[in-house]
Amino acid sequence: MTPYTLRFIQIDRKRDTSNGDPEITHIYSFFAESSKYKSLIKYIARAEKYNDCFAIKYYCSRCKHSEYKYSRVLDLFTAVETKRIMETCASVIPDILRQYPNSSFAFNGSRTYDRANYIEGPHRTQRYRIYTELVRRLFGEKIFYITHFDESSSCIFINRKANNNIDAAKTRIYDMFANIYQITV
Predict the structure, then answer these.
(1) pLDDT (tens digit per residue) in 49-68
(2) What would the mean pLDDT of 128-155 be, rounded to a whole number?
(3) Which pTM value belongs to this model?
(4) Which of 11, 34, 47, 150 is the most exposed, fewest CB within 10 Å of its CB?
């Protein structure tokens, strides 16, 4: 199954990043098909640039004003459709690499927030477990050194070409995102 068609929307640039905002954000949209409801659901994918690393995020546009927009369980899609959504978001990476060939990437498997107001714990979240399997299948380790952090449900793709010292890059990138997103373990 191929990813959905990703449409580039805009680049958002920040002048002041002292509050933790990304320097640049590439914003994309796509429509996911829900066989359950026989409709198209709009999604937004964001590639947020912090120094030499992009954080990839996505959410259903229906949830754009929710404080849990990255965590909401919507129950709109089958497992196959959900995988296709995730593959579509991952397809942002080759596009960003064409523009920023030395970039590394990161993701965090958000804690599930469901209709019963259940909030999942931070370690090895359901999304993280799915993402890590997807990452393993979609990206080899030729371009990236891929490292996982189970305790914070995070993953970093360190660009091998741009980082001679992988361990130093791993520590630098993880510490940067832990500070920005207030990740505690």
Answers:
(1) 999 999 999 999 999 998 88
(2) 86
(3) 0.89
(4) 11
